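From the pipeline queue, job 12 of 40. The input is one protein chain; the requested action is below.

Action: predict structure.
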Amino acid sequence: MRLTKTPALLLAAFTVWPLLYMFVFMAFMFSTFLWMGGGPPQGMGPPKMFMLIFGLHLLTILEVFALMVVYIIHLFKTDLVSGDKKALWAVVLFLGNMFAMPVYWWLYIWRPLGGEIIGDKAPGSN
């Protein structure tokens, strides 16, 4: 099972989002506690920014579950990962999910497509 470059890059964007969101969430929580005043008056309900972060948090959690399914299906359908490493990768993807998925993407999805970093050229090429 091999992807073309466009779906692989789209998968990369979805794969990177949980890591980016982790920093957005930490910044939000830090700023909330740093600038916390007396809080909203009684009966006003939660602040709108909290509701936005709550929604993003829920969507990101669901996205990580969906990505785990995609990566584990890819793992067991590809011939790029040797049979004895598939079980290990499945455990690593399950337990290390948002940290392991970019590594798996780079090793087994992008590199087989001939993907390279911008400005990265093979030795001896012009």
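Job complete. The chain has one domain: 5-34+48-112.
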